[in-house]
């Protein structure tokens, strides 16, 4: 394998790297006045990386031709499809951020650069085919994320969110690193394919401990129960554009990485981790649903909603099949649209002075005062609840179908029953917006960019999107097939 060939495979990552470095210099020389040009340039860089990645996804890239840097990275369709979602979510965060930070006089060019480097770290994560590449990508993303959480330096909540995220993130990274060292010590290799071969005849005690520690570290990154405790506080304290970013792009990256790790590195011993993943799935669904019921702050409710949705996605992983992996990708695509849409709608809840409104008391009677916004929120919440004919229902349908096909009927039944709990707090939005007396608190005007993103997200989760499910299903199946050809 030649270095030039490897560099050719990672052109999207090179675009992000060079763009980030150049914009870093522009920010240093231009100061805060460079914020808008830097944000625009970062969006262009993400768009360029998106279009450079798309051909590999459409072609279903897989096999030895996708291996880069002597087995460190795998630039296949699985990684590519995840990257498309990551770049889209990161771009959405950059689009909505200026209006939010300008009001607080806190818009600085570092925000766009941090998002760019976080996206680069996530790109490495989803392409990782070796424990070393995995850790480099994970830490590049995490270091940028810690700073983003504490971005508002004069805000106590933001500082608290950043500190909590950093301390618990460092703990999770330590757990993950310890598990990786155990795996290396007891298998003699750090490559996913090498680990898969080493454990093919059975797991030793050391290998099993390594596997458990690695899964525990990854569970923190996707905020799966019982490693979810940081999520509500960080989501509430971080600036809302940052929360929108956290709830979408890093989730995609961590889940795609977890699936690759489980199926490529631990695939020959699936029975050793299926029960762990199954428990985390059900626990996340139940805890996410019950935790959200009593919330009055919308950002905290959406944090528990994200925990709940991770549970459904993990049911797909628990199947340990390519059909389950394909279903995960389909669910993630609609999850990103629903998450971006819900946070964009939240950013549009402003009073006459432009201050953000974040509680249910602020949106009473919203259908009377802001009908278009209320109806978009209604569709998004119904979709999150999994109510047909919206695409949130379709995402759950493919997940449960994969579970039934894998003879995990009990897991699917429990998941379906638990999803009913989640419908309660999503319906709370509808009750407050459409049936409570109007308080007329939402008076702020939103720009065209917010409306454009909200309309796009609403259309993606509407019944119209059923026209594209066959196409999306084909891409997801090709992406999942790429995992089977690894090695």
From TrEMBL:
Q: What is its main location?
A: membrane
**One GO biological process term:** ATP synthesis coupled electron transport
Q: Which GO terms describe its cellular component?
A: endomembrane system; plasma membrane
Give start and end of each NADH:quinone oxidoreductase/Mrp antiporter transmembrane domain.
Answer: 128-422
Instruction: Give the signal peptide range.
Output: none
What UniProt keywords are attached to this protein's entry? Cell membrane, Membrane, NAD, Oxidoreductase, Quinone, Translocase, Transmembrane, Transmembrane helix, Transport, Ubiquinone
Keyword Chloroplast on entry? no
Q: Does the keyword Cell membrane apply?
A: yes
The membrane topology of this protein is:
Multi-pass membrane protein
Looking at the UniProt entry, the stretches that span the membrane are: 6-26, 38-57, 77-99, 111-128, 165-186, 206-230, 273-294, 301-323, 329-349, 370-388, 408-427, 448-467
Q: Which Pfam family, any one, appears in the UniProt record?
A: Proton_antipo_M
> What is catalysed by this protein?
a quinone + NADH + 5 H(+)(in) = a quinol + NAD(+) + 4 H(+)(out)
Q: Where in the cell is it found?
A: Cell membrane; Endomembrane system; Membrane
NCBIfam families attached to this UniProt entry: NDH_I_N, PRK05777.1-3
Give the record's subunit note: NDH-1 is composed of 14 different subunits. Subunits NuoA, H, J, K, L, M, N constitute the membrane sector of the complex.
Job of this protein: NDH-1 shuttles electrons from NADH, via FMN and iron-sulfur (Fe-S) centers, to quinones in the respiratory chain. The immediate electron acceptor for the enzyme in this species is believed to be ubiquinone. Couples the redox reaction to proton translocation (for every two electrons transferred, four hydrogen ions are translocated across the cytoplasmic membrane), and thus conserves the redox energy in a proton gradient.
Name by which UniProt lists this protein: NADH-quinone oxidoreductase subunit N
What is the native source organism of this protein?
Alteraurantiacibacter aquimixticola
């Amino acid at each position: 394998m030649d270095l030039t060939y490897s560099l050719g495979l990672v052109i999207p990552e090179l675009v992000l790297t060079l763009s980030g470095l150049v914009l870093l210099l522009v920010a240093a020389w231009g100061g805060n006045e460079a914020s808008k040009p830097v944000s625009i340039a970062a969006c262009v860089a993400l768009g360029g990386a998106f279009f450079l990645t798309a051909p590999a996804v459409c072609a279903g890239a897989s096999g030895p031709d996708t291996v880069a840097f002597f087995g460190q990275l795998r630039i296949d369709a699985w990684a590519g499809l995840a990257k498309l979602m990551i770049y889209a979510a990161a771009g959405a965060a950059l689009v909505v951020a200026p209006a939010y930070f300008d009001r607080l006089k806190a818009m600085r060019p570092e925000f766009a650069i941090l998002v760019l480097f976080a996206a680069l770290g996530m790109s490495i994560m989803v392409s990782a085919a070796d424990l070393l590449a995995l850790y480099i990508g994970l830490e590049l993303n995490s270091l940028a994320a810690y700073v983003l959480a504490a971005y508002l330096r004069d805000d106590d909540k933001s500082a608290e969110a950043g500190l909590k995220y950093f301390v618990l993130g460092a703990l999770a990274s330590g757990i993950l690193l310890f598990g990786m060292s155990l795996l290396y010590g007891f298998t003699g290799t750090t490559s996913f394919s090498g680990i898969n071969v080493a454990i093919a005849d059975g797991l030793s005690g050391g290998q099993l401990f390594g596997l458990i520690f690695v899964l525990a570290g990854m569970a923190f990154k996707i905020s799966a129960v019982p490693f979810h405790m940081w999520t509500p506080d960080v989501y509430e304290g971080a600036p809302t554009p940052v929360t929108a970013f956290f709830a979408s792009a890093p989730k995609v990256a961590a889940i795609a990485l977890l699936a690759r790790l489980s199926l490529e590195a631990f695939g020959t011993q699936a029975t050793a981790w299926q029960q762990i993943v199954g428990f985390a799935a059900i626990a996340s669904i139940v805890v996410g649903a019950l935790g959200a019921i009593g919330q009055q702050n919308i950002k905290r409710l959406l944090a528990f909603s994200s925990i709940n949705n991770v549970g459904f996605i993990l049911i797909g992983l628990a199947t340990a099949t390519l059909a389950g992996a394909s279903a995960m990708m389909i669910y993630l695509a609609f999850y990103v649209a629903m998450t971006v849409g819900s946070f964009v709608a939240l950013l549009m809840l402003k009073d006459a002075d432009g201050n953000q409104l974040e509680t249910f008391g602020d949106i009473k009677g919203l259908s009377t005062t802001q009908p278009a916004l209320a109806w978009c929120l209604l569709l998004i919440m119904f979709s999150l609840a999994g109510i047909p004919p919206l695409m949130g229902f379709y995402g759950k349908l493919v997940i449960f179908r994969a579970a039934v096909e894998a003879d995990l009927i009990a897991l699917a039944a429990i998941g379906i029953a638990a999803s009913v709990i989640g419908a309660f707090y999503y319906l709370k939005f509808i009750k407050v917006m459409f049936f409570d007396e109007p308080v007329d608190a939402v008076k702020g005007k939103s720009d065209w960019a917010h409306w454009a993103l909200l309309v796009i997200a609403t259309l993606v989760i509407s019944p119209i999107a059923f026209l594209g499910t066959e196409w999306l299903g084909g891409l997801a199946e090709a992406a999942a097939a790429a995992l089977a050809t690894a090695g």
